């Protein structure tokens, strides 16, 4: 949530700041701003996206030190004044901040009592004034930031720029910050993704750490203690390209990238000859896997839906109780944690605050938690220490697509691995692995012949609301389809397990109400057909996602066929038309597909 980028070195900085923000825009895009040091510190900020801010920049801004921010509003409305950077009363300090300062009311009150005028409604602005007050004591930027933060309660990824010092001071507590080391130049970002054009050498700041950057390097210390060694990590090259290429939107590009992303995820991790899994990042021996009493999977949004499918696949293959949890509820429900049980924190960004809190809760109570994460080196990945990277490559569209598929695939591979440590036969495991390895080709096949997607879009685009139904592994697919359509096309959607419809949502149906039903040819198909009949009897219009060659196609007003696949893996096929429906509906309605209103790609506040 919110993106930070900064640079100190010999190069002119303004274009680099704008480019850095472009790569971070998916984190938040209410308003944008940059600050460049050039004797004084010049600030340019504006409501809207990076391009809106760029339109107010003068032709040339001289300066080789700067910081930049793209905002997702928490405190204070979306206005130019509330956009970052924020400047201190004496113009000597300029800051950008991610996170929430919980005691900002009292800090702001105290500043006002000292005669300081506040120019925004934000919690962040107070930090700029407080640092400036501290700086007047000893003219030491690092100590000024440290003293200021000792009075602050909350979370921060903070960068401070100083009119009279050639340094950037950076601090982290609960909001990601990664530093980049180039040759004679140093970078800071909230996301390694913005650093990759400049350097592969990065330092991940941990909570409670503060760093001073100059063009020669990085010095890290603790907010409440001494100096610490800087551990430089090399970013992996395999992260891939994050440019649009020939596609009109990242969402469409990422839908089409699913087959290749899945190949990356599965490659080298399954042994077809022995039927064994090789998820080495988990660091769990088969003997330990055998003793696991149950599994819990925790995530938000799309990650949660992938976890709900993983739960069913694990339970079915390994005959082991598995349950998924909404991450934002988990910690607050004071869960009982069994130290023998396995927990998975599932997250594309690896920065989702709700999921991270659940990880910490499990660890606090002595439990083992493994990450199922896309972004290498992200906070959740590092906090867990062990896990499975899903290798989707960069996902730029706010609406998650290819990460969903890879999360399902990663959990399915784990299911095979743990099931093999128990009673799953080699033959059955080989059957599952072959089926999983076939899926990328099947998705490609589907993408070449997508069926009547545009007819479905016509039926949905003017709907007051849409009901999504599915059973078994298709119930979370229904939830994912509803989430996609809701977040990119702003149509109210309700997802229910098909059997639950008659217990309430059926009241919504009237003549012409669109109902999207996911019904692959599995053991619950006949039951789903009953739900279709119940909907039809009330005049609903059925948009049916089914498998090729299945007679059920006659049950739909609009029937979209996907290639037939092993029952447990059908979500990897059935979700694709739902993603396409959401994408095309949003386009028809003129919505900003990649940057839907009010959302952000990684939600780093609870
Ligand atoms: C997905 O389309 C959503 N934008 C959102 O629900 C997302 O899946 C959720 O915020 C979790 O994000 P994460 O995977 O990065 O943890």
Q: In words, what does this structure look like?
A:
The chain is an alpha/beta fold and 606 residues long. The chain has 3 domains: 3-240, Aminohydrolase, N-terminal nucleophile (Ntn) domain (Glutamine Phosphoribosylpyrophosphate, subunit 1, domain 1); 245-447, 3-Layer(aba) Sandwich (Rossmann fold), CATH 3.40.50; 449-606, Glucose-6-phosphate isomerase like protein, domain 1 (Rossmann fold), CATH 3.40.50.10490. 34% of the residues lie in helices and 23% in strands. The strands form 5 sheets. An 8-stranded antiparallel sheet has the order 3-2-4-1-10-9-11-15. It has a 7-stranded antiparallel sheet with strand order 5-6-7-8-12-13-14, with helices on one face. Helix 16 (474-489) links the parallel strand 23 (466-470) and strand 24. Helix 4 (125-138) crosses helix 5 (141-150), helix 7 (258-266) runs antiparallel to helix 14 and helix 16 (474-489) runs parallel beside helix 18. The longest helix has 23 residues, at 426-448. It is globular. The structure holds 2-deoxy-2-amino glucitol-6-phosphate. 2-deoxy-2-amino glucitol-6-phosphate is lined by residues 300-303, 347-349, 352, 355, 398-400, 487, 599, 602-603.
């Amino acid at each position: 949530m919110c993106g930070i980028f900064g640079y100190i070195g010999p190069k002119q900085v303004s274009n680099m700041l704008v480019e850095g923000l472009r790569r971070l825009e998916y984190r938040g895009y209410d308003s944008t701003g940059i600050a460049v040091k050039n004797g004084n510190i010049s600030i340019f900020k504006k409501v809207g996206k990076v391009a809106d801010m760029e339109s107010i920049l003068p032709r040339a801004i001289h300066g080789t030190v700067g910081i930049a921010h793209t905002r997702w509003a928490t405190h204070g409305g979306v206005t130019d004044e509330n956009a970052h950077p924020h400047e201190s009363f004496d113009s000597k300090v300029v800051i950008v901040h991610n996170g929430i300062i919980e005691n900002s009311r009292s800090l702001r009150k105290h500043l006002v009592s000292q005669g300081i005028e506040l120019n925004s409604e934000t919690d962040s602005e107070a930090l700029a004034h407080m640092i400036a007050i501290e700086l007047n004591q000893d003219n030491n930027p690092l100590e000024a930031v440290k003293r200021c933060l000792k009075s602050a309660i909350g979370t921060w990824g903070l960068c401070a720029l100083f009119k009279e010092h050639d340094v950037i001071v950076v601090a982290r507590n609960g909001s990601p910050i990664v530093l980049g080391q180039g040759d004679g130049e140093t970078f800071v970002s909230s996301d390694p993704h913005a650093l990759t054009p400049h350097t592969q050498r990065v330092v991940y700041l941990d909570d409670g750490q503060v760093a001073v950057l100059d063009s020669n390097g990085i010095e890290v210390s603790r907010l409440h203690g001494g100096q610490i060694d800087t551990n430089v990590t090399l970013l992996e090259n395999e992260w891939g390209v994050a440019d649009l290429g020939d596609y009109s939107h990242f969402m469409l590009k990422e839908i089409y990238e699913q087959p290749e992303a899945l190949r990356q995820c599965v490659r080298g991790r399954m042994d077809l000859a022995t039927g064994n899994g090789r998820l080495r990042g988990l660091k769990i021996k088969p003997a330990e896997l055998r003793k696991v009493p149950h599994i819990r999977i925790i995530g938000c949004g799309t990650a949660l839906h992938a976890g709900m499918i993983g739960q069913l696949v694990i339970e079915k293959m390994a005959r082991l109780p598995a349950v998924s949890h909404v991450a934002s509820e988990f910690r607050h429900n004071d869960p009982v944690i069994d130290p023998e049980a396995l927990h998975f924190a599932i997250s594309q960004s690896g920065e989702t605050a709700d999921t991270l809190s659940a990880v910490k809760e499990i660890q606090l109570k002595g439990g083992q938690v493994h990450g199922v994460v896309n972004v290498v080196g992200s906070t959740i990945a590092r906090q867990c220490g062990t896990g499975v990277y899903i290798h989707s490559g960069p996902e730029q569209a706010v609406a998650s697509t290819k990460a969903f598929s890879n999360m399902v695939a990663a959990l399915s591979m784990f299911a095979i691995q743990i099931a093999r440590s128990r009673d799953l036969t080699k033959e059955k495991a080989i059957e599952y692995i072959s089926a999983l390895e076939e899926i990328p080709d099947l998705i490609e096949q589907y993408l070449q012949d997508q069926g009547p997607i545009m007819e479905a879009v016509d039926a949905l685009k003017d709907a007051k609301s849409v009901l999504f139904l599915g059973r078994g592994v298709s119930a979370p697919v229904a939830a994912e389809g509803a989430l996609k359509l809701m977040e990119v096309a702003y149509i109210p959607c309700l997802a229910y397990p098909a059997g639950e419809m008659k217990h309430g949502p059926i009241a919504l149906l009237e003549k012409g109400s669109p109902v999207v039903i996911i019904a692959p040819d599995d053991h619950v198909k006949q039951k789903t057909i009953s739900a279709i009949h119940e909907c039809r009897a009330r005049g609903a219009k059925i948009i049916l996602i089914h498998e090729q060659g299945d007679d059920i196609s006659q049950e739909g007003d609009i029937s979209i066929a996907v290639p037939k696949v092993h029952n447990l893996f059908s979500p990897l096929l059935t979700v694709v038309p739902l993603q396409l429906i959401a994408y095309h509906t949003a386009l028809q309605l003129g919505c900003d597909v990649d940057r839907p209103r009010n959302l952000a790609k990684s939600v780093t506040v609870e």
